[in-house]
Each structure stands twice: as C-alpha cells, then as structure tokens.
C-alpha cells in the first residue's frame, strides 16, 4: 500500500496518532538544534557541552552559570515563532481530535504557541517558560518573573535577578522547569508514564526531527511494533535510530527531508480525503 493510501485508511478508521517531536521541527523557526554548535557554553577558558551544562550536578556546583545559559536559551526561544511544521501538527489535532496526542522533547513552547492544546500535549522534557523550586518544596510551575531580562550569550545573572529566581513558596533557589541529563523521567512533573503508555499503544507514530539520543523516546520506538497494527514514520534530514527501526520493519516509513514539508503533505492528504468522501 502506498503511504498516501495508508494515511487515508488510517483516517477512515478509529486508530490513534502520536506525533513525537524533537529539536529538528523548531530548526525551521531559527532555534539551533540541541546538539548544534550554538549549544556550547564558555566558562573561563573552558567550553561546556549541553550534556555537562544541563545537569543537576552542574546546577549544584554553579547555579548562576546554569541559569545564565538557560536565560540565554529562553531568549532565543522567545524570539522565535512557530513555523509551518508546528502549524501542520495543530491541523492534525483539529482533524483527529481525541485520537491525537503530541509528545515533545522540545522545551521552547512553540507547539503550544502554535495552538496545540495543553491537554493533548506531553512536554516530557519541560518548558523553558516556567521555573520551579530547586529544593522540591512543591511541584508548582511558576511563570518567569517579568523583571528577569532576556539575555545575550554569556551575559551574567544580576544580583536583582538572583533574588527573583527564587521559589515564591519557600524562597529557596528556583530552577528551570526542564529535565536534566542526570535526572529521571517523572510522571508528576512531565506526565512521562502517561505519554509512554499512550505512545506505545498508538496506531500511527510520527517521529519528527529527533536524533533519538534520549531514553523515553527510544523506548517508545523499540516498543511500537509490539502493537500488530502500528505504523512508524520517521521524518528527518539525517539518519537516526528511529529511521533504522522504520527501515528494517515492513510497517516502517522513512520520509527524508525537512519536517514542515512532510507534515504539511500528510495534512493535505487527510484534508483532500475528507473532502472527497463528503
Ligand atoms: N527537519 C527535520 N529534521 C531536522 C531538521 C529539519 N528541518 N533540522 C534538523 N533535524 C534533525 C537532525 O537531523 C537531528 O536528528 O533534528 C535532530 C535534532 O537532534 P538534537 O539536536 O539532538 O535534538 P533532539 O533529538 O530533540 O534532542 C533530544 O536531548 O539534549 C537533550 O533534552 C534535550 O530535548 C533534547 C533531547
């Protein structure tokens, strides 16, 4: 069956769709991918990789350097707008309603800005627009204090901002609402288990713009074909472990090229099909 006919058959049935997104979808909005050259951060004469900066260990040692890095990343994200790939995923949700869920690793908030509903979106790595208590006095997500400025690269956190980046409840240090490399996925903060259970029982899993370097998404990839109906689609501009899974399975589909183009083609197929059967 062609991919187009497969999409039409999916639309006619009552199967569920999961879109699993990574940094590649936001690349077309001008946000550098996580492992691109912009990810590096200089402290003194040393360059740090995201895998070192985005850790609880680093935050414990040097919270203000880690905050400065996140405030800069937040600035990059805040000046970016959703692109046609994000908008295509909004259309998918509109077409499929409760048959749809989005699992995103992106902390830029662009899926929600584009219009995907918070109730059907699992932000399994958090969202940079929020902070929470670093001591864990509560799980409340606090919006950023307005007075904290957007930052240039390597711009330090000011003494006034250090007072603002505190937990409003216990006054201890606040932290960005993200999942760090040395932390575990968590249901209370990230709905990780709910996202996982939905995704592995889904009928169509569309993986878009991820390098497949994180554990929960890859676990979904390794489980998906246990569902005898499931189809895995990988959209990416390079090889990645999801593509390998898709390539080596009869129910796998590889779509090579930019995220936005392929997602919009899928939406067009579904819309035209809906019109043709009216
Ligand atoms: N269209 C499709 N894919 C793209 C595009 C594009 N226009 N541009 C880049 N890509 C792909 C790259 O080929 C790569 O496979 O997006 C992927 C980006 O990989 P990463 O930067 O590693 O991002 P991601 O996979 O989302 O990282 C996952 O790891 O570092 C942690 O928590 C962080 O959420 C992040 C997670």
UniProtKB/TrEMBL annotation:
Transmembrane segments: none annotated. The gene is npdA. InterPro entries: DHS-like_NAD/FAD-binding_dom, NAD-dep_sirtuin_deacylases, Sirtuin, Sirtuin_cat_small_dom_sf, Ssirtuin_cat_dom. Its EC number is 2.3.1.286. It is an enzyme of class 2 (transferase). This is protein acetyllysine N-acetyltransferase. PROSITE patterns: SIRTUIN. GO terms for molecular function: histone deacetylase activity, NAD-dependent; hydrolase activity; metal ion binding; NAD+ binding. Keywords: Hydrolase, Metal-binding, NAD, Transferase, Zinc. Zn(2+) binds at residues 133, 138, 167, 170. It comes from Desulforapulum autotrophicum (strain ATCC 43914 / DSM 3382 / VKM B-1955 / HRM2) (Desulfobacterium autotrophicum). Residues 1-278 form the Deacetylase sirtuin-type domain. The active site is at 125 (proton acceptor). It comes from the Bacteria. Signal peptide: none annotated.
